[in-house]
Amino acid sequence: MAARWQGVIALLLLIIISYVDRVNISVMILNPEFAAHFQLNENRMLQGMLMTCFLLGYGFSALLLTPVIESRWHYRQGLLSSIAIWALVCAISPLLGSLLGMLIARIVLGVAEGPLFSLKTRFINDNFAADEIGKPNALTALGVSLGLAVGFPLVTWLMAHVGWIGSFYALALLNLLLGGGLIWRFLPAPQVTSQRAKPGFSQTFALARRTPLLGWILLVEIATLSYLWGSSAWLPAWLRDEHHFSLQATGLLAAVPFLLSLGSKFLGGVLLDKMRPEQAPLLFIIGGLLTAGSVLALMLSQQPAMLALFMLAANVFWGLQGAAIPAVVQHHARAKRWAAPMGSLTALAIFARRLFRC
């Protein structure tokens, strides 16, 4: 396998690991011992704050750290530094004795994970031609669905066998050994080249802000992230509280919709490589309308079979547009400055999503 595709596979696996890390709280809040330790007491607002703090840290990091990393660091250095912090946060989380401490830890975790997709986008652009980026973008986008599909049952299994404290330690080892090992082995170290003047933070951020169609792409990203975070945070509690599934069954069932989106995500990448770059927004239109229609039908349905059908359909159609967002940003962003627009876009979408939810 070519070295560049080994790097793509390594990034895919790292994204899977990162989403296991992100989704663990959605499952752990269903554990009575975890909830009692952090005084959550079935308080939905406090439970939601754990996700909110992560997203705020993630958004600020994507907005402010990404331009700094792009202008000063190689993507390998940035990813290895992030992974080390992910592992450290997981390792110290069980030692925290208060909800405030956990909220701070979630902010730090969000800050550490913020640059991931921007650095992934930069790697793809450094190693693939403009007419080849659809498939690697689609393949790495599969990590989102795979991470959620693996994360729900994995975290429930860990809690059943080693408890919530052991689950954090296991995830810390997963981050450090597997995630860090993959990046160390398969992403090439920066080559020593002649010194070139690198743009500073202000110049890099200004280039990102001038990306054409940034506002329209932002609206699509808001909708995409709203569906992703809303469904992944809501689904486990809905399955347990409304339909009274056990914790183990909840983890398995919550994975099913995200497994079904895998095929549609890769299909979207294949279609992107066959379309002209300016035609990529068609995937937003088609995927977005079908997702919205499925969600509307889900809201209006009463029969369990119809609820399941439309929930699964929404995930399939949502996955269709998964590879289109980075491809559109890559097409419109200034040459060699893809990471900052991607980071700024993600950050602004997260902030808008939290604002609309409030």
From TrEMBL:
The family database entries (InterPro entries) matched by this protein are listed as: MFS, MFS_dom, MFS_Na/Anion_cotransporter, MFS_trans_sf
For membrane topology, the record states: Multi-pass membrane protein
Any Pfam family from its record, for instance, is: MFS_1
CC annotations in GO: membrane
GO MF terms, alphabetically ordered: transmembrane transporter activity
Alphabetical list of SUPFAM superfamilies matching this protein: MFS general substrate transporter
Q: Which Gene3D superfamilies match?
A: MFS general substrate transporter like domains (1.20.1250.20)
- Taking every annotated instance into account, which residue ranges of this chain make up the domain Major facilitator superfamily (MFS) profile? 7-358
Location (main, coarse) = membrane
Residues crossing the lipid bilayer are 46-66, 78-97, 103-119, 139-160, 166-187, 207-229, 249-268, 280-300, 306-329
Superkingdom of this protein's organism: Bacteria
**Record's keyword terms, sorted:** Cell membrane, Membrane, Transmembrane, Transmembrane helix
Instruction: Name its cellular compartments.
Output: Membrane
The family note in this entry says: Belongs to the major facilitator superfamily. Phthalate permease family.
What is the protein's given name? Major facilitator family transporter
Report the source organism: Klebsiella pneumoniae subsp. pneumoniae
